[in-house]
Every structure is written in structure tokens, then in C-alpha cells.
Amino acid sequence: MRLMCLVLIFLGGCETVKPWERGTLARPEMQLDSDPLETKLREQVYQSKEAASGGNGAAGAGCGCN
Amino acid sequence: MSRLLCCLLICLLPLLSHGLEVGETAPEFELSSLPNQTPMELQDFAGKVRYVDFWASWCAPCRVSFPELIKLRAEMGSENFEIIAISVDEKTEDATRFLRRFDPQYPVLHDPDGKVAERYDIPAMPTSFIIDRYGQITMVHTGFRDGDIEKIRTHINSLLAEES
What we know:
The structure holds 2 protein chains of 2 kinds. Chain A has helices at 2-12, 36-50. By secondary structure, chain A is an all-alpha fold.
């Protein structure tokens, strides 16, 4: 029971990043993909070699507007 | 059992905050303008229909909304209507660089700590509030997509028409 209470209290500390606080997350150095142009080129090569495309990303801009 | 209930209530407290809704009075604020750091308040534009727009330089839809809002402001004039843009950029340089690109002819304020954004509890970027001349919120608009400006224009025109 005590453990459960403790877990619940800690869960209250979980905080979502507010929409106006996402500036840092939007910085280029915070992106998973550091060089989008190179990624595009790699995708192009991959598509031409495998004759298949897609399935390697998700939509969304990270600003909470989609 | 009562302990468990207390714990549950403590955990649920953060969920109790809610965004501002249509019909509520728009909270007052005072912020510095960009780029010249003049203090401005919402009250400075009392008696006008106000479009309060929360934006940031890193927000992609804001880049789409700015040219449309600049056109809207040019159409509507500033006699009975004003756009008040509030940047939530942490760094002033980011906001001023963005503004140099668009050069809006309406007041742009800076909220680097997000205090006003928090008070308005904006759910997304950008979020705008249309406030009538009596200070009541009449429309909350989140995001910015093609065709949104028409809805905004129609709403503002209806407010201006009923108030003239």
C-alpha cells in the first residue's frame, strides 16, 4: 500500500512539456535527424536499390498543433 | 483507504487546470514590446476588438499565419481592431530575427518566461484569442491551416458589425 502511494505521488511529478516551452526541443541540435538533406539522399538510394519506399517516419511538427 | 484517496487526489491535481474558454473575461497582462521594449497592456487597446496571437519563431504554422494576419490588419485598420502578437521565444534574438522577415505593423510583445501563455493556458502553438470590445473572449483558435483566416475574418467582421 505504501509503495503504491509512493508511486502515485511520484506519478504526480510527471509533467508534459507545455506548448510554449517547446522552443528548445525545436532547435536543430535537438532533432533526431541532424542532416535532413543527407537523409533524403540516403532514402533515395535506398528506394532505388530496394524498389520500395515509405514506412520510415511519422507526421507531426512537435508544436502540438497537429 | 482514505490515504489512497488522498494520494489519488494529489496525483490528479495537475489535471485540474483548464484553458480559457469562450465567454470568459480575457486576463489582463503587461509585457514589453519588441523590438523597443516599451511596456504595453491589454488594457491599452480597450474598446477595440482584439486578436491576441501567441506565436514563436520555431513554430512552423506561425510562419504561415503572419503574412495572413498582416494582410488582415491592413484590411481592417486600427480604429476598431488591433492584433496583439505575443512571442513566447525564450531568446529575444530569435523573435527579432523572425520579425525582421515579416515586419508586422501591429504591436508585438515578448513573453520569454511564458507567464502570460500559462495564464491563458494555451493548448497549442499558435493559439489566438479573439476578444470583443468588452474584454470577453469570443473565439479561441488553435493551429493555423489553409482557410482558417476566412473563419477568423468572418468572426471579426461580425463582431465589428454588431458593435458599430
